[in-house]
């Protein structure tokens, strides 16, 4: 009996251990299945989304122009201690590779890279390369210096040496209005070239203004809609959702048309007699704000509305029945409950606003462009890709920080559309 | 299942990528708007009909950077491009263009000297100048000094975004005689002077990039006067029944050229197209549609005399215009563009 | 169902004023949201070539010009091809991933979720520049394929979000019941799970479609003359030559968004009914 009870108990123990193991196995299988289901999208995003962005980050410190076109010169420059002028072999290999580059027409990249630090290096390089003799007249150092005295200046070679390094801080420094001087220490750039810090401030300021306006307009709207009977509010929500579903270009284009000097708004204001001269509403800050607020407002209203819908009117009634004025009841009881919606809406609008490109480009003037415009400008117009990548990296880091805050405060899984 | 499907997906994508890398159609890139409409009618469509090749069009707003991006980006989708004078020199030096087959064009001496280069052949002679709406301003501006005078002529101004032309105009507005503009601009003090003059109207300027924009801005009343390309003004007057006036005084003229981007897969067809567009019999048809100057000596003699007075190459007009100093812009584009961008972004 | 600030009969003057002011503000904000979109529509039927009122007359000339232009038609074609391909790809990948994310919490679950959603928040210009650099050496610039791949990445989060939301209300006992009745996993998915989450999948797909169909920044970087999309064509039009053709194109796009919104709303109601929320 004891024995049987023992076996019985141990049997139960074995069984339960089996069950546990089985459960654990099932659990592990479920996790594997889950991972296998997520894997295709994850791999896809890693290759076609994440890798390009990492590539962009790397490009912001890439320094391959000189090492690719003039490998020997670059290697020799890296050996050099950087004091005074480099030794003759550096000049010799430079002269050889310069002539080869001129022949094969591959100098453009090096010229471009050097121009970023010394603006006239492009002409110096091409002028030196044009008709360079095959053998030196004396030393190569004298020959090159005779062709252009820039080559006799240690500062030139300090720049060359920096261009020969495998990576460069040049672009990242420039994106915060800093540069390296001849001695290699970091200094502020001249005030007539220092623009990027201002542009970052402008970008965040504009996004903040748009966010505040969206909140000011969106909060009462969401409040009113949430307090209406569902049939009415569902109907009115269409007016919020239709803009949300309409193409950004349609909306931006509509604003360009509306705000024109001879457009409907100016005409209406003049007809009513409010103004005698048309107002300048487009290709300036006003236009950008109006269009951006219009485009981003639904992103504020939707989260606010869903939070407010969930607040029971009983709280407010209780507060007023306890003697609170409607205003106090609103401030002390209703408002605190809407804070999650306010946070979600503001962060979302701000994150989206910071990255805006199309709307300022079409509706704004030269002084209303945000960081994104400059990223695009450097990529497509001047192909200073290092600079585009550096500005992009700073913008990306700022956005990811905000995204992290959003994830902590609101939760990623609560991000909803419509 | 996940792994297998993603493998399939990968294979399918690779197959599509390889398929996508096939030869593409000959692409010609010009400056858009009414100008390209005219080119389409006079050059592109007749060329397609005659040679039975498909021609794809694109348009751009200039900048040697855009050409570098195409060639060095490794996946260029342009073949024939109309470039500005300093872009021709810079790009040729940097190896962005193919060398032209001048024999196919009938020899170098068939063209005006400014239209001849190893890498390109002149397409048009064109002028950037002041235009305003005659229906709104009766006694209009006569010079760049008037253009700068916002109290005499209230309203916004349109200017092309970039240092080229803008600095020249600023110096002329500041009283520098047109023949000394580049002499002054070659000094640091001269550049400072131009930027200082620009500061005066900075808040009144709407900057444009594409050639069609200034006419749009003028038509919508957004600007009171603007710089624009001469023939587009004529085209807008014709198509929209406008009375936009042209001020030849102080206009800056230059030659645009056709080039073939390096490593074009359609090099032969590209050369055929350029030869077609350089043929006097075809070139003479362009000015009646859009009155820019032609580059073929023979074509210049064949142009309908009725359009001569509104062409930049008419001697009376030429006398009050300034020739763009290509050499200056070849040497200074990078430096001044950087300074201009910093100035405009501030 | 009373409104929160339902006015009692004894409401003070201040309360009445507040009530009126709130209504007025609501009406103004709603007008601000909807009027700019509606104003474009009559302008597209103008017989004149300028975009202002009063209209000189009514005509369909701008629609003729729009639908007779090879440029607009080919850009429409390109947009439709890219939008449909990226929608299919994003919907399949996104739905699978949502099922996986729902099935079990695995290590790095939160990180995976953050990565999957990130295409929604990373500024478009950064995505555009990144893919422009990265796709060029692979021969993926200047091809509709490259644009499709980028758009798929941008659209996938919308599918994941919508399908996940639907799955949260999904009673897993249903698929267990199917399994206990002898259905294998695939059968259970296609016969039980999919029909129930289908409204979510379809609305995710609609979101994906709109994301791709409207996207212009990446298109500006990745497409050449042969792959011009509709938004890119609109962008150039707005910048260089705002004519009523743009208004006509905009009107057609507005009609499309009304259609999509209606479908969405129908789906939402159906899904709520199926999941027994209402």
Automatic annotation (TrEMBL), chain B:
Q: What are the record keywords, sorted?
A: Signal
InterPro entries assigned? SBP (IPR006059)
Tell me which Gene3D superfamilies the record gives: Periplasmic binding protein-like II
The protein's name in its UniProt record:
Spermidine/putrescine ABC transporter substrate-binding protein
Q: Looking at the keywords, is Signal present?
A: yes
Extract the signal peptide range.
1-23
Tell me the classification of the organism that encodes this protein.
Answer: Bacteria, Pseudomonadati, Pseudomonadota, Alphaproteobacteria, Rhodospirillales
